[in-house]
Design goal:
The chain has about 170 residues and is mainly alpha-helical. It has one domain. It contains six helices and two strands, in the order ββαααααα. The chain has a two-stranded antiparallel sheet. A hairpin with a 2-residue loop joins β1 and β2. It is elongated and about 60 Å long. About 5% of the residues have low confidence.
Length: about 170
């Protein structure tokens, strides 16, 4: 093994060649302490539930504009969850950065989706009977709860990704 000499902030240091890579890998394992596979599975489950609601809404006489506005978030959630699981399996710095980016997008999608679902829950424009309005309002409130859960999960993944990236740099 060869020694590499460098100067940082006026302090001269010598580092062995393999030691730097090992230190970076150890600091990236702090990402795995957050159980990204479990958090990613939760994100994928939320995305699949929202996708199932989109399919059901197609069969109910609902305005297509509402469906297209509200239910794009499942794409972000499934992508972010898949990225978190993949990063746990192959832990590299670019993968952690990608997970950070996709979870930031999922976080923004959860905020926007929660606000839109809450609004639609109380002002559903295309109800034909009171029973339909009641059940659609309840399902929209369930979507608000899922958006809040997605927000919390994506914040946790972002926290652990930032912690791993900041400690390894």
């Amino acid at each position: 093994m060869s020694l590499e000499k460098f100067e940082s902030f006026g302090v001269k240091m010598e580092i062995e060649e393999g030691e730097e890579e090992q230190t970076a890998l150890v600091s990236l394992t702090t990402f795995q302490r957050g159980h990204p596979t479990l958090l990613g599975a939760i994100q994928i489950t939320i995305g699949v539930i929202m996708l199932a609601k989109v399919v059901v809404m197609f069969f109910i006489d609902v305005d297509l504009q509402i469906i297209s506005t509200l239910y794009w978030g499942f794409i972000f959630y499934i992508t972010a969850g898949s990225m978190a699981i993949a990063t746990n399996r192959k832990l590299t710095r670019p993968m952690v950065r990608g997970t950070l980016g996709t979870n930031l997008l999922a976080n923004l999608g959860a905020i926007a989706g929660g606000i839109l679902h809450f609004y639609v829950a109380f002002t559903f424009p295309s109800c034909h009977t009171n029973n339909v309005c009641f059940y659609l309002g309840l399902s929209e409130m369930a979507m608000v709860a899922l958006c809040m859960l997605e927000f919390i999960v994506s914040i946790l993944v972002v926290f652990f990704a930032l912690r791993a990236l900041c400690s390894s740099s």
